[in-house]
From TrEMBL:
This is tripeptidyl-peptidase II. Residues 1-18 form the signal peptide. Its EC number is 3.4.14.10. Its cofactor is Ca(2+). It is found in: Secreted, Extracellular space. SUPFAM superfamilies: Protease propeptides/inhibitors, Subtilisin-like.
């Protein structure tokens, strides 16, 4: 094992920036369980296939793949599995396959052996927001026999912070009579399902098509209360039986406690997709990156997966490291090729990633969010106000430092870049994947939390709203005998682009930063605050049916 190749690395400065502090070397006899991502046999082929499946006008348009067809691209080659098996055997390791596509295995070994095999030094780290320590390292190298066969070893150089929930802001608890529609008594209005239906032309007729469902993922002890959902439906959706509920799925020890003290607002945000079956996936797991991985591998193994998935969590792209971000993103590519529309909130820090401290307001180097920056998901930003709608200051948006401008958005991104003055003081990767892709309202949402009505805001309210729109369009596609929308972005950036109301007002400096802080400004056409803007349901449906 004389020759080694650096697999991943993170500077101490970056780890410290994320809030982690080293407490010294990890004890040599501590046991580590590491996940190893074996190199897929044909990721490039799946990328090419998904491109063909998702571009309007293609002969393969929306002919989504089966579970086994996706596996044929993702599974490692015999050469790769043999190489890793030989490595494991030679070092007394017993690998366990942990993914349906056989591209992830786990190994358990002492710290001393991990240090030797991967030319590294594992350390114990603490974080002020964590009660437990984590064992990580700042670099990992591969022995020569694994070069070309292993993409990621996890957890190693990933320093993903706790509290990755893009938490809605609880503005107030309010027992007043709920408004029937958009309430103008507040400067930006109270957002109810009726308001959203009126604003975007969303139908109230219940969905009836079989094979359509909306999956809401939840991490870090975010719980959906059945009692809150019932109360929400009584107050705001009296046209839906109040005993309508969701199907609970759990993964990695995920829970869904019904203690009112643990209540979240997730249940209330699924009340727009009238008649669409809702699944709530509660994911446990030791860290956010692992939870994201396990969610994708869980869905990889489902014969009939949900048609739409929404997630309201994220962190700085740099916290994951490029290798891990690429591997997770490829997992979403696999889901998109199955016909799943994967949506993520774009982040609540404007151009400043996951940060909500005023100390970052003078920083002119922009921080992209992940998974929002993944080109195989649809990132959803936040708007406020009416006639016209405007980008809210916290809406996450920008350009990836890991992923290049996506094939479907080259013209749109180029158009926006032309609007930026030559003396623009912000630093960002102009050749990166731009996000978000679309936006909807994201402020003053009326919800029920712990039995009380409340007003919340955040892109975590926006992604479920847009996901509901897509789920309702899928219902009509299925009824018409057509395939579901699946991977959305090539459609959104081409024939679907005219089905959005362009948003041209807004500045995403971040919630805690003044408007004078450098950030992007909304512009005509696509921009990295609002994407193409807010959906017009009838026009988006017509484009989808065309």
């Amino acid at each position: 094992m004389a020759f080694r190749k650096l697999l991943s690395a993170l500077s101490l400065v970056a780890a410290t920036y994320a809030g982690f502090v080293s407490q010294g070397a990890a004890p040599a006899d501590d046991m580590l369980t590491l996940r190893v991502a074996l190199t897929s046999n044909n990721v490039a082929g799946l990328t090419e296939k998904l491109t063909s499946l998702s571009i309007p006008g293609s002969s393969e348009f929306r002919q989504w793949l089966s579970m086994e067809e996706v596996k044929s691209f993702i599974q490692p080659s015999l050469e790769t599995t043999s190489a890793f098996s030989a490595f494991a055997s030679a070092n007394g390791l017993t690998p366990t396959v942990i993914s349906p596509n056989c591209d992830w295995v786990s190994i358990t070994l002492p710290v001393s052996q991990a240090n030797e095999l991967f030319a590294t030094q594992f350390e114990v780290f603490t974080h002020p927001d964590m009660t437990k320590t984590i064992t990580r390292t700042l670099s990992v190298s591969l022995p020569s026999e694994l070069v070309g066969h292993v993409d990621v070893i996890h957890p190693t150089t990933e320093f993903v912070r706790p509290n990755t929930r893009l938490a809605p802001t609880n503005l107030s608890l309010d027992k007043r009579t709920v408004a029937a529609s958009c309430n103008s008594s507040l400067p930006t209005g109270v957002i109810t399902p009726t308001c959203l239906q009126e604003l975007y032309g969303i139908p109230t007729t219940p969905a009836t098509a079989k094979g359509n469902s909306l999956l809401v993922t939840a991490y870090e002890d975010e719980f959906a209360q059945t009692a809150d959902l019932a109360e929400f439906l009584k107050l705001l959706r009296p046209d839906i039986p109040s005993n309508t509920t969701f199907t609970l799925l759990t993964l990695d020890g995920g829970l869904n406690t019904q203690n009112p003290a643990d209540a979240g607002s997730e249940a209330s945000r699924s009340g727009l997709a009238t008649g669409v079956p809702i699944q709530f996936l509660s994911v446990g797991g030791e860290d956010f990156a692992t939870s994201l991985l396990d969610t994708t591998t869980f869905l990889d193994g489902i014969e009939e997966p949900p048609t739409v998935m929404t997630t309201s969590y994220g962190d700085d792209e740099s916290s994951f490291g490029s290798s891990m971000a690429i591997k997770i993103c490829n997992g979403y590519m696999a889901l998109g090729s199955r016909g799943i529309s994967v949506m993520f909130s774009s982040g609540d820090g404007g151009v400043r990633g996951h940060h909500d401290n005023a100390s970052v307001c003078d920083d002119t180097t922009f921080i992209p969010d992940f998974p929002s920056s993944c080109p195989f998901i649809t990132a959803v930003g936040s708007l406020q106000g009416f006639a016209p709608e405007k980008a809210i200051n916290f809406t996450g948006g920008g350009f990836s430092n890991v992923f290049s401008t996506a094939f479907y958005q080259t013209a749109a991104v180029a158009g926006f870049l032309e609007t930026i003055p030559s003396d623009f003081p912000g630093t960002f990767n102009s050749s990166g994947r731009g996000y978000p892709d679309a936006s909807v309202q994201g402020w003053n949402f009326e919800v029920v939390v712990g039995g009380e009505t409340a007003l919340i805001g955040g892109t975590s309210a926006s992604s479920p709203t847009f996901a509901s729109v897509i789920a309702l369009i899928n219902d009509q596609l299925i009824t018409a005998g057509k395939p579901v929308l699946g991977f959305l972005n090539p459609f959104i950036y081409s024939t679907g682009s005219k089905a959005f109301t362009d948003i041209t007002i807004g500045h995403n400096s971040g919630f805690v930063c003044p408007a004078s802080s450098v950030a992007f400004d909304a512009a005509v056409g696509w921009d990295p605050l609002t994407g193409f803007g807010s959906p017009v349901f009838s026009e988006l449906l017509a484009a989808a049916l065309a």
